[in-house]
Each structure stands twice: as C-alpha cells, then as structure tokens.
Automatic annotation (TrEMBL):
One of its GO terms (biological process) is establishment of competence for transformation. The keyword Disulfide bond does not apply. InterPro entries: N_methyl_site (IPR012902), Pilin-like (IPR045584). It comes from the Bacteria. The chain crosses the membrane at residues 12-34. This is Prepilin-type N-terminal cleavage/methylation domain-containing protein. Keywords: Competence, Membrane, Transmembrane, Transmembrane helix. GO terms for cellular component: cell surface. Its main location: other. Pfam families: N_methyl (PF07963). It comes from Halalkalibacterium halodurans (Bacillus halodurans). It is found in: Cell surface.
Amino acid sequence: MNDCKGYTLIEVLVALVCLSIMTAALFPAFVWFMNESADVKRVKVAQFLLEDAYHEYLSIHELRTETIVGETVYQFNLKESELGAVQLCIHWVNRKGQAYETCRLAKL
C-alpha cells in the first residue's frame, strides 16, 4: 500500500496555490490589455466616423452633431480655417475620462 504512485493531497494543494498566485499576478495585466484594446478600437471608430462625416460634409455641406457607438459619444464640430478650408474635428472621452480629439482638413 505504501507503493502507490500518484499525487498526494499536499502536492495538489501546492500546485493550486502556485496557480492561484500566478493568476492573481497576471490578472491586472490582462485587465490593462483589455482596456488598451478598447481604447484602440475607439480611435479606429473615431477615424472611420470622421472620414464618413468628411465625405458627408463635402457632398451635402451639413455636419452631424454627435454619434453614439456603444457607450462612447462622439461629438463633431467644424472650425473655419484660413484659405477657405474648414477643419472637421471629432471629440470623445474614453472610459478613464481622458478626452481625445482627431481633426481633418476639408478644402471646399
């Protein structure tokens, strides 16, 4: 009976403790990575919306005020520039409360 080959309860508990410690150490990095990935997605959505608003403005000379995608509100504004050009800008705030802005110059 002493010749059993297998894991003892202590060995299993030690393995579970090691696995728990590694999981606890890696979880914050995983959460950070997911938040950064969501921010990159918001930037790509903003670039797409700005490009769409740019073409819409060139064709009908009207600009929408805001667009909501998921939980993010994207706001558009128009700034007059020198030499008859206008600057289309899009603003949004990420989940951490940081404000972002991307602009594009439109020549009429």
